[in-house]
Amino acid sequence: MILVTGGAGYIGSHTVLVLLEAGYDVVVFDNLSNGSEEALTRVEHLAGKKAHFEHGDIRDRERLDEVLSIYPVTAAIHFAGLKAVGESMKKPLEYFDNNVSGSVHLLQALRQAGVFNIVFSSSATVYGDPGTPVFNENMPTGTPSNTYGYTKLVVEELLKKTQAADPRWRVALLRYFNPVGAHHSGTIGEDPAGIPNNLLPFIAQVAVGKRDQLSIFGGDYPTEDGTCLRDYIHVMDLAEGHVSALKAIERFDHGGVGIWNLGGGKGHSVLEMVEAFEQASGRSVPYKIVARREGDLAQFWADPGKAKRELDWEVKRSLHDMMADTWRWQSQNPNGYRE
Ligand code: NAD
Ligand code: WQD
């Protein structure tokens, strides 16, 4: 059985679906601070199989011990945490508490339960600003431009040092690029509370009429059209990457740490994203170009070669799929999971 912390959230719920479809039993552990049980109900309909759900906070060691005593867990996929970049600068204690202390408690509870396989949601933000747009896993980690990014870097170090001290651990550090999209059915997707921080949910809310226009942060970057480039990855491709990583660490002869970029290896500009969304949705997305946002790099994308070689994984879905699936989710669920 796989313990999925944060499994009621965006990437977690899609990964739970892929796990169930691959035949795994799953228990989700989530405090619902940014997730929804409705997402798991919909996952159950799609998979024809139910994931167990346990309400709880990863900072609550007793609750973790209790859940791990009930279910025969063999591995954990650890999504739980806070992820809003701007908020992290205002609330560093909350971010270190949830993301770092929460991870410490989780590792202690797993060790006590004899569970040493863990897949962790890291982020391309741990590379900092390496001065080249193509990020590969041999590069040293850098200085993330925000507190959220620091917590990811700290948890990577926590996992590396824990593994170095106890070789029973098998660890996957998955560095995501820019996850977007939704399940093809349009029944599960990203449901941000309040004003979206990320580009695609914002575009989708403009298209559906919830917001007037998109503000594009900067039109004078040294890129072809002056807007930033990112490596957007379909959330279902990302979810499948987790199952591949889980299988890869299970194949390790001894314990170890595997670090893999999960990205498509190609950058798309903000203007390209707007155009592709308009094409897929048939709606117009009014925008204005405003000042740059602090902390944004002009362009970066993944070198996806290591994941391809070692995980036998690569992205399968196109930019059009990302847009069409986002639109299906957004238009069928204009208020997300809140009816
Ligand atoms: P999300 O907010 O949708 O999911 C996180 C889930 O964790 C939520 O369901 C929330 O209720 C739960 N949670 C938060 N704190 C918790 C705690 N203390 N105890 C138990 N549950 C808790 O976010 P997401 O986009 O699905 O991201 C999942 C993971 O991937 C996060 O760790 C995030 O930092 C990481 N990540 C996300 C992105 C992205 O752009 N979405 C990129 C790179 C990495
Ligand atoms: C994408 C592009 C913006 C909103 C963040 C985190 C990263 C990871 C993924 C969690 C940029 C532009 C955006 C808007 C815009 N998260 N933009 N108008 O910043 O690449 O990455 O999410 O782990 O750690 O930093 O993603 O979606 O915010 O922005 O012009 O209203 O869209 O400037 O070029 P980002 P994003």
Describe the protein's architecture and organization:
This protein has two domains: 2-181 and 232-265, NAD(P)-binding Rossmann-like Domain (Rossmann fold); 199-230 and 266-300 and 318-332, UDP-galactose 4-epimerase, domain 1. The chain contains eleven helices and 15 strands. It has helices spanning 10-21, 37-47, 61-70, 85-90, 92-113, 147-165, 199-207, 235-251, 270-281, 305-311, 319-332, and strands at 2-5, 26-30, 52-55, 75-78, 117-123, 134-135, 170-176, 178-180, 214-217, 229-230, 232-234, 256-262, 268-269, 287-290, 301-302. The strands form five sheets. It has a seven-stranded parallel sheet with strand order 3-2-1-4-5-7-12, with helices on both faces. Strands 6-15 form a two-stranded parallel ribbon. Strand 2 (26-30), helix 2 (37-47) and strand 3 (52-55) form a beta-alpha-beta unit. The two termini are 32 Å apart. The site of UDP-4-deoxy-4-formamido-beta-L-arabinopyranose has 19 residues, from helix 7 and strand 9.
